[in-house]
């Protein structure tokens, strides 16, 4: 059976796995973005706090994904919980780092002007600083998403959802007729999803970043 025949015979399962993969990454990115931006907001004004936040999230990223999931299984069990926890933790570093960089890069004169017209601290943050810091934050989100697309495949080790199941089935059945097809289908599916997500982020950037800021 060639690759295209294999895709035709298993397209329903592949589509289901692709949906689960994309859904897991998307949901984890939403949580990681909220947590990462919050950490950035809380730490960007202090050098030591910002460095600590960056160091902490970068340390998490150095833990091998298999080891991370293996450590989480005794705590949260198999399936979705270790997948969501691991992906959320891995997605923090680029968002935290870019949030801090973006917020620190806002022109102090603009913040002072907003303060001069009577804006509260929260209003300045929400209406001036975060919108101006949004381009680097969005870049951090894009980088995190690309990382998590690949890392999510390891979730199959813990009976997690996604295209990693196809890859692991193929590896487990090396030498059989469809082993290579399974690995190739899972890998190409992840690549296609990553490209689609990145295209969506490009569109989101065009819709949410004013032309003057993009330039």
Automatic annotation (TrEMBL):
Annotated TM spans: 24-44, 51-73, 179-204
Compartments where located: Cell membrane; Membrane
Domain of life: Bacteria
Family stated for the protein in its record: Belongs to the binding-protein-dependent transport system permease family.
Cross-referenced CDD domains: TM_PBP2
Lineage: Bacteria, Bacillati, Actinomycetota, Actinomycetes, Kitasatosporales
Pfam families (alphabetical): BPD_transp_1 (PF00528)
Name of protein: ABC transporter permease
Residues of the ABC transmembrane type-1 domain: 18-201
Bilayer topology: Multi-pass membrane protein
The species this protein was found in: Streptomyces mutabilis
GO BP terms: glycine betaine transport; transmembrane transport
Keywords assigned: Membrane, Transmembrane, Transmembrane helix, Transport
């Amino acid at each position: 059976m060639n690759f295209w025949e294999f895709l035709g015979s298993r397209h329903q399962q592949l589509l289901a796995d692709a949906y689960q993969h994309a859904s897991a990454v998307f949901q984890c990115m939403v949580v990681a973005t909220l947590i990462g931006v919050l950490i950035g907001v809380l730490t960007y004004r202090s050098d030591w706090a910002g460095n600590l936040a960056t160091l902490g999230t970068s340390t998490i990223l150095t833990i091998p994904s298999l080891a991370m999931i293996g450590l989480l299984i005794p705590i949260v069990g198999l399936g979705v919980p270790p997948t969501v926890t691991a992906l959320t933790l891995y997605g923090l570093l680029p968002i935290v780092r870019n949030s801090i960089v973006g917020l620190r890069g806002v022109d102090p004169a603009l913040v002072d002007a907003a303060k001069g017209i009577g804006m509260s601290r929260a209003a300045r943050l929400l209406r001036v600083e975060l919108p101006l810091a949004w381009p680097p934050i969005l870049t951090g989100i894009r980088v995190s998403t690309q990382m998590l697309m690949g890392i999510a495949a390891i979730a199959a080790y813990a009976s997690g959802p996604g295209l990693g199941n196809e890859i692991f089935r193929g590896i487990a059945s090396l030498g059989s007729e469809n082993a290579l097809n399974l690995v190739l289908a899972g890998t190409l599916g992840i690549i296609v999803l990553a490209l689609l997500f990145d295209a969506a982020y490009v569109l989101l950037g065009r819709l949410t970043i004013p032309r003057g800021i993009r330039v």
